[in-house]
Amino acid sequence: MSKDKLWGGRFTQPTNKFVEEFTASIDFDKRLYHQDIRGSIAHARMLGKQRIIPMEDVEKIVHGLQEILDQIEAGKFDFSISLEDIHMNIESRLSAKIGEAGKRLHTGRSRNDQVALDIRLYLRDELVEISAYLDLLVDSLLNQAEKNIDVIMPGYTHLQTAQPILFAHHMLAYVEMFKRDKARMEDCLKRTNVLPLGAGALAGTTFPIDREHVAELLDFPEVTRNSLDSVSDRDFALEFLAHASILMMHLSRFSEELILWSTSEFKFIDLSDGFCTGSSIMPQKKNPDVPELVRGKTGRVYGNLMALLTVMKSLPLAYNKDMQEDKEPLFDTIDTVKGSLKIFADMIREMQVNTDTMRNAAAKGFSTATDVADYLVRKGMPFRDAHEVVGKSVAYCIANKKDLPELSIEEWKGFSPMIDTDIYEAITLEASVNARRATGGTSLEGVKREIARVRAGK
After folding, report:
1. Rounded to an integer, what distance in angstroms lies between the CA atom of residue 321 and that of residue 338?
2. Domain 8-107 falls in which CATH fold?
3. Average pLDDT over residues 361-388
4. Which of 43, 83, 300, 329 is the most exposed place for a label (fewest CB within 10 A)?
């Protein structure tokens, strides 16, 4: 019989053993124990305040739940698959501990609004923690930028040498990305931080509950406004998964550059040995496993987003058992993002920059060609004409195995009589970098200003 189930009154046959195992969620949702107990304590206090259950029962419930919390945290709580989920495991143990009073806890609520509350509480805490990890990563990037403030490297488009930039400017590009990620997490928190408890199974409750009081006890600034939506909404989880996917995409792009930069062909950076591994057969190898693995884990987070979108795409209102599949993608993404951010912040902090290699690379590939064109424009030549002149000078250099700074003044004048000896000052790496003074540019002055702005929290 199903009398051992808290919902078993209507059933006359026991649950199939495999069905019991297949439908249980306790193996993964037990991590919600703290939120479940916190929500239950707030619910019980509200029931007492509203005189829906006796205050003496409230005190027994609260004391019993706190004892269960201590047992779980001490590793002395045996979770049961037959009790399906974290809610039933805790409620069943509570009733066994305190008797009749424990059976009154579920008055005026359903597992449908209870699990919606638990997930929101859990994600709310994790969003705050993820934002803190993003701050650590931004701090590591700023430290690298400050430590290597005047290091020049090649900037790329199409992975071809384009123009010289400051290495610090490159780091600040990722700072901007991760600041946007933090802003998205904080924005997601606004929609997560809404109390669904009180919606019942789908239609509300007949008891005179005070949802606003529960919201106050649990630090929710507002309550949900529609009971059907309250129990069937997972938009906040989808929003987080979408934001997490963008964040992981940023980490993946950064990973790709770190992997390239650490190759013997580039030699731009050295990653600390603590974040690399060797080869079982090639003794010379130092493999950038951390950025490679983060790059790989990005697909896993994308998959979690698609999994939950697919679960939710055709569900009728209100709650459906399909929605039990929301937790594993959510939990896995949270763990993946937090782990990736933590290890990245530590790795970037210990990364060494090979300044001479970067500078030498920046001097190649005609990286100051645009500066020659800008020089001619300042002399009065239309930009399109200047573009053509410089294109011809580059072709000449390629044919004669020279670089632009190696051309004699006579050779320069062969392309345009407007060119004079001041051309050599205009096409140094420092001149090229520092000429870009507009807001957002790579000049030393501008980069220092941006670092100060980010440090000031702006």
Report:
1. 28
2. Fumarase C; Chain B, domain 1 (1.10.275)
3. 96
4. 300
List the chain domain ranges: 8-107, 112-360, 363-455
Lowest mean pLDDT among 29-43, 49-63, 130-144, 270-284: 270-284
Question: Which residue in the block uniquely carries the two structure tokens 């782990």?
Answer: 339
Residues taking part in catalysis: 158, 279
Structure tokens at 74: 């001490």
Assign 72 a pLDDT band (cuts: 50, 70, 90): very high
pTM metric for this prediction: 0.93
CB 241 within 8 A of CB 333: yes
| CATH node for 363-455 | 1.10.40.30
Render pLDDT for 303-341 as a digit per residue (tens, 0 to 9). 999 999 999 999 999 999 999 999 999 999 999 999 999
Q: Among positive and negative, which fits the CA dihedral 146, 147, 151, 156?
A: negative
CA 89 to chain centre: 32
